[in-house]
Each structure stands twice: as C-alpha cells, then as structure tokens.
Amino acid sequence: MRINVLTVLYNCTLSDSATLKSILQANLESTKLNMIIWNNGPTLLKEQDINNYLKSNQKNGITTSIYQDVRNISLSKIYNHFINKIDYDFFVIFDQDSNIDFSFFQNIYHNSQYAIICPAIFPKQKIDKQCFPSDFEQREQVVPLGEFSLSNTRTINSGTALSKDLIDKLLDNHHYVFDEKFAFYHTDHRLFDLIHATPQTAMLKGLCIGKMYHDMTCEVSYDVLSERARLEIAYAKMLMRMYRAHNPKIELRRNLFYAYKMKKKDNLSFRSFLKLLKCVITKKHPRSYASIDKDVKPTNSNIFS
Asked: What is d(CA 268, CA 273) in angstroms, rounded to the nearest whole number?
C-alpha cells in the first residue's frame, strides 16, 4: 500500500517535530511511505537538520521530499497542490505537533475499505479527554472507536487518512478538496462541509481507530493566545459564518457589524480589526492570494533517479 504523508512545519525544525519523530517509530510493514515536508517559514531549515532527517528516513525506507517556502502559505493551497500529485492509496495530512501510535499506518493498511481512517484525538493539554472525531452539529458529542458515517461526522486534518476514492469523488464533483478561501483554522471544518454536501461521499463510511495526542488551540485559554492567533481564529469564524451551507450570512452590512462585535469580544487591536474588515469585504482569507508554482521542485530529497 502506498501512503503519501504531508507534514507542514512552521517555526519548527525537522528534529523538533513531534510528528516526524513519532512517524520514524511507527510500524511501516506492508506500506510504502512517501513523506512530503513543507517548511512554511519563517526561516529556512538548517542543512545539518535536513541531512540528518533524510538519512534517518532513508534508513527506514521512507522516500522524502522537502519543500521550503517562508511566505507562510495558506494550508488549503498546500494541501490541494499535493493532493493532486503522485499516485497513492491514502493521503494523510499532519501538523508538526502530533504524536501517533506505533500501529498508525497498520491501522490504515488493514482497513483500506474505508473512505476515511482517523484516530481518536486527545489534546496534549487534557490527555484524558477525547475531542475528535465528533458529531457534525453537536460538537461536544464525540464519536467512539469503530465505524461511522461521513454524513454526520467531522474531525481535524492532522492524522486523518483520506482514501484516493474519496478524493477522486470530491475532485470529480467540485474540482477541489480544500476550500482555498480558508487558510489556516477551519480548513478541516470546510472539508467535512464539502463531504457532507456531496451525496457520493456523504454515504461513505469511515473508521475511528487508535489514538493520537495533538496540541489543540481550543484547549488553550483565549486570554493567553497571541494577537495573531486571535485574529486567525476571527478570520475562520467570519468565513464559516459566510459559507456554512445551512446558514449562509453573506450580507456585507451584517458581517461588518459582526466584525465590530468580534473586535470587542476577542480584544483585537485596531490594526487587526482593519484586516478582519478586509476579509469581510473580499470574502476570503488574506493569505488566499499567495499561490504555489504548479511546477515547484523540492529543495532537498532522498529520491534518486
């Protein structure tokens, strides 16, 4: 089985990524793992860090390509770029700070009949509290281990294995998988919006198996979040308000007023408020304008022709 794994780093070295370290410890029997690393900035990775990582992956039989772009590109654009590249049976997305089980890839290999395979997600901040997957509408109602329907379930991007069949159905119906109006937060919510809205995919089955520990912003007190993080959450909330299919709110005047209420509630600076207003007017995240060259090449690789 061929599994493509895309991990996006930001302000993190290869050697410090909890995700990359746990992948190296996982059981890869009967799987051909192709690792794609995208360094999203703000600085380039050091050569020694790159060389050590490529050697470790080569030793474990993992083909690896590293891309570097310090512009902090929209995640949805990165995901869409690589989801159309290279043959695979499953496509797995990771953030840099997930800890996977030893059996993570075996869980995919032995359950390849499912459209989505995902672990039960536990926040590193509260390791005894499962938070995903959950019911699509009732967010506090988590989905237990076992089979579930894609029609009423959602989970986070990190650690979720998407089958090629599911991806092909979404591409056939919509010509994209991730909504590029969104950049960082809620790209996963929008993916499941798309799945639910597509009859050919909503009827499919998923499987929740194993555990994964992940840093969750929702478990961090809002008061300690940086101004930048609060603004990113505000962008996502505003865009979800506009585009959730069951309750679209696209009236400019109402959304401008809502943005003003968010400024007060989320303690945004005037500068951040102006950026949020731009998001309201353009109806997309400011990072949506930066694009990826369709022929972009890896800066480093252990794949030899």
From this structure: 6
Burial letters for 245-254: b for 16+ Cβ neighbours within 10 Å, e otherwise? eeeeeeeeee
- How far apart, in Å, are the Cα atoms of 206 and each of 36, 48, 133, 150? 24, 40, 10, 6
pLDDT tier, 219 (very low <50, low <70, confident <90, very high otherwise): low
- Answer whether residue 221 shows pLDDT above 70: no
Cα–Cα dist 101/99, whole Å: 7
Question: CA–CA separation, 239 vs 233, rounded Å?
Answer: 10
Domain ranges of the chain: 2-217, 221-289
- pLDDT computed for residue 303 by the predictor: 84
Strands (E), 220-264: none
222-229 LR contacts (CB < 8 Å, sep 24+):
222/266, 227/268, 227/269, 227/272
Distance between CA atoms of residues 72 and 10, nearest Å = 8
Q: What string of DSSP letters covers 259-272?
A: HHHHHHHTT--HHH
Q: Report the distance separating Cα 5 and Cα 38, nearest Å.
A: 11
Q: What is the pLDDT of residues 259-281, one digit of tens each?
A: 999 998 888 999 999 999 999 99
Whether pTM exceeds 0.90 = yes
Provide the Cα torsion 288, 277, 8, 14; round to 10°: 130
Cα-based distances in Å from 145 to 32, 130, 160, 218, 287:
26, 11, 14, 22, 36
Output the six-digit token pair for 204: 């499919």
Superfamily of domain 2-217: Spore Coat Polysaccharide Biosynthesis Protein SpsA; Chain A (3.90.550.10)
| pLDDT value, residue 205 | 97
> 186: alpha, beta or left, given left = phi > 0 and alpha = psi -120 to 50?
left
